[in-house]
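A common beginner's mistake is to predict each chain separately and then try to dock the pieces by hand. The better habit, illustrated here, is to supply every component at once so that their relative placement is modeled jointly.
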Amino acid sequence: MPHVPLVPIGHPRESVVDRPTYDRELASHAPLVARLEERRAEAHAGWGDKYVARVHEKDKLTTRERLERLKDDDTDMFEVGTFVNHGIEYDGLRSPAAGVITAFVRIESRWCIVIANDNTVASGAWWPRTPEKIQRAQEMARRLRLPTLYLVDCSGLYLPQQSKSFAGARGAGHIFKMNSLLSAEGVPQIAGVFGDCIAGGGYMPIISDRVYMTEQAYMVIAGAALIKGAKSQHITSLDIGGPEVHVHQSGCADERVPDDVTLIECLRREVSRLPTSAASFYRGGVEPVEPAHSPAELPGLLPVDHRQAYDAAEILARLCDQSLFWEVLPSVGREMICGIARVGGLYAGFVLNRQGLIDDPEARDHQRPGGILYRQGIAKISEFSRACNSDGIPLIWLQDISGFDIGAEAERHGLLAYGSNLIYTNSTNETPMFTVLLRKASGAGYYAMAGLPYDPVVQLSTPISRLSVMEGRTLAIASYNSKLDDNFEIVSSDSEERARIAASMAEVEARIEADMDPYVAARQMDTDEIIRLDELRAWLVTLVEMSYQGIGYRRVKNPRIWSLHDLDVLTHGGRA
Amino acid sequence: MLRCAPVKRFRRLFIANRGEVAARIARTCDRLGVTPVFGVSQADLAAPYLRDRESVMLGPSRSSESYLARERIVQAAVQTRCSALHPGWGFLAEDPRFAALCQAHGITFIGPPPAVMQRLGRKTPAKTAMASAGLKLIPGSDGVLRDAEEARAVADRVGYPVLLKAESGGGGRGMRAVRAAAEVKGAYEAAHAESTAAFGDGRLYLEKLIEGGRHVEIQLLADRYGQVVHLGERDCSVQRNHQKLIEESPAIVLSDAERAQTLEAAVAATRSIGYVGAGTMEFLLDDQGELRFMEMNARLQVEHPVTEMRARLDLVEAQIRIAAGEPLWFSQSDVDLRGHAIECRINAEDPSDGFAPSPGVIAEWQVPAADGNVRVDTHVEPGYEVPPHYDSLVCKVIAWGTSRDEACDRMTEALQGIRCDGISTTIPMHIAVLGSEAFRANRYDTRAVPGWEA
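With all components supplied together, the output reads:
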């Protein structure tokens, strides 16, 4: 039966949790959300009003003003890497968002990725991790084949810290390798040069298919200062590499335009000449419809306390169109939920962890905790992941996972091998995968469910994400194992020693707890972005739509020929 | 006549409803050569309209476990090998999730696409679409309100009294009338809290409260390919607590210019929102004689026979053929609306006892024979028991005449010819209304039933 047999899931909020519990959860989320908003605002402000004024004095737009004009009216931008370098200072200087804005932006009804130097932060200089952040965005563009726009306004590498971002495998030069790969693979690249474009900044636009320059822009291997030092010539950078040179003499750029506003209009016009999105074709006449249960309720349904269970289906119900879902292989590996839903009218696969106690298939009348990977669940999600890849369905991993089951039984079951099978599957998948660290992302569970080391196109964290090898408490117990009894109580009766052990354990726990902070992961690029739970639906709609935008490069099967139907008929005998 | 010879279409059609509308849909199915399959609750198992019919029991009498049980209904439709499903009115007729569920399981839902239905269910997007297509709205906020202060500012601008309404609301919940500036804040907070609790969405919008207007609606028909026609308007101003009692067409209170302009805009709006199937736009006729859009109902209306009598068209047939992918087989210029038609809804209620429900066994039941001028739509037979679980409609009488008076006289005669024993009905009220000076002279509005004090 080739229909995709979606059925209603989820319940109204009031029949899931009572009002006081819901309000209490919202209240626990509130300070975390406030902190996120505050830090976002901080990153968006760049170096602040003084530098905004400085840009305006030059009759230029700030980078954020450019993006605002570039995007379609009434659409939202989806930024990645907002918190890269958050809280880190170089020579006493902050580098908000690593001085470059990378975002999914809708232009002329096509999703594009925009990489834009922030001209309010050290004139768009490249800080440590700026090249990595640019490359990460280029990689997202390459995987989704999104038109890539560079808004270049870059004074070059921040030289006092040059050794941190110059020479390595992901050093600044790798940006140009990514430029080349995008070009080789046929992903359109368009560059607008708005100002300084020195050295590395000079190379970045050149490989683009179309290069525009404003009258204030110049591209040079070395700027006026260096020429003066090396050749004792007094000449302006604009004379060395302005539009007069590059548009007319060198051919390094295609068009010159008078100002920022005109350049933005030209970039929009270039995008309008590209093929339109295939998404509406793949929707098959089905328009997007919001979930029947509001995504705004998500923070009240997902407890901040990672030890507290909840109904994962209620989370899913607030992410799928009309809260309709087809659970695949529902009767085996119950600790995992996997299946298909429409998201923004387009089919997507979901994998998530069921929480709370779940019947143990190995032992009658016995239950075991969810949020853990056991043999059946691993086999199930491996097979589901393979099928989605074969069918070309984008795959969304929603993690709230403590890790693999451990112990004698787990080893006897061969979880190492089943886990490796899953790792192999996810590593070789070509269908776009997106990973969301809903709450816990612990140990090998984080790996197995397509954590960042397994190359999801985008990985999102939430304000309550906890990314770590293990929980602090677990590590503290493991570290002081020999000093503890079977109930994890300190054995020693010497009060001084007891106090010392207790203090050391608390220190280990606190250190791990601090490292699990999602901002730590985000600042060192262990996750791509931190978003509010009530923003997740809009993100997923965008990510899925982008996965379907391009045409003719990835196998997107129609549901009639999905291998998922084979799985279904083999396990359920198919429907009438 | 706007009919044409039956063509190949659905072989079996599931009727996900009960009572009068179920019987009504089945009549058209019979004529088209489509086999109807009825989904029924326990309470309706022995209903006379199911005799010699195929039916499936959906569940217990409680509608939440039968006529509102989405998955059971779809499962029943699949198992009985139906290829289409008619939701009738009420129950799941305007549930976009149910429509999508049918679609996902290979059943053609007879109604507009789920996304269109969803948009019409939300107030602000629906109104924005209608306004941009040229329909006039009731003055009020431009979309949802930010806070009580904005509500106050908008209310001051449009003038009191005003009505605060829930963006995702319905059934009067999250709704507050405000008659003075000092009441805005309290009413805003109460409505916000109520709609948050009821719909999980506390957003509110505000409209000027128009009291005592006339309720006028336009019948529309759209195919899948962007062709849209209107089938004229209906006046449904004889109401009790927002329940329509008598409907007629044309609406004689309407000026020709206003009628023509609104009909045209309604067609354009229907096309612009991508509507498919039969739908009705409801308007309030204000004291300036202007029609102001209220909402669009994405389904067949109870009062559709009024239009059928004037247009000589079977709307259920049109719905089925459109759902089967047939392009509209006539154009606007082919629509010839003749004479005057009127409908009385006969409910099992006692009008002299505050319209108290009057369920029970109908011991004696006889209605006048239908002819070209009088039509009786009913599922009732002698011995039928009106179940207490559902709405109380037992019968609709529709009369046609070359003039309004002729139609009213025929209606009165038909009503007087009905013999019903065992339950109380609203027939005496209808006869009183039809005979009243206020009704005949067209001097009434939605606030009170003309010619009936009870």
